[in-house]
Amino acid sequence: MSGAVLDADLVTGVVRKVPHAHKDMFDFIIYSDDAHRMFGINAVLPLSVAYVNQNNDGDWEDWTLTEFDPTRPWLRASPITNPVIHRGLIYLLDEQGRLAVYDPCKHEEGFEILDKPMSFGIFKHYDSHNIYMFESDQDELMVVLVGQRGAPVHVVKLNENTMEWDKVDSLQGRALFTGTHASMMKKIELEWMQNRKVLLAPRCCGT
């Protein structure tokens, strides 16, 4: 089975085909911060990751894969949110609040499931309809928990000292934009937009 991946530049309209990965179909695709490396993540079978580099001519080289290993960690990854690159590491979120982390410098080791957090803390029994993870403008790893039909909306951030999810009570004048493929938090000058949560997910729009 093979998976086709396309690299499309939405500004120039140039589309390049990335070489097939004959061992894996990817559940997630994520670019490195400089956009010259692409990671493919298989989250259905035991967690596995591959990467492909873009050369100086703009073409993509062959995928570097990890061997299939049934003893690798298993994680029920949230299908809604993409993985997030945070301080050079790739984080993958499961539906209960657990995290798996991958260090590109230790590719052969693949993903490691962290011992903590074990849940979303005070929201561990909260029935979230959609879950979105992102890196904030203050370099924090955060998650948005969205209830049925868009309400209520809760925000938590990873306390990297305790490795637990802490509730965020205030956005401190920032606005949060969240959707299926990407989420972001930005400082907003418009007063009416401050401390707002704008949901851009399909069938779910609100504040």
From TrEMBL:
Which InterPro entries does the record associate with it? KIB1-4_b-propeller
Give the organism, scientific name: Oryza sativa subsp. japonica
Q: What is this protein called?
A: KIB1-4 beta-propeller domain-containing protein
KIB1-4 beta-propeller domain segment(s): 49-185
One Pfam family this sequence matches: Beta-prop_KIB1-4
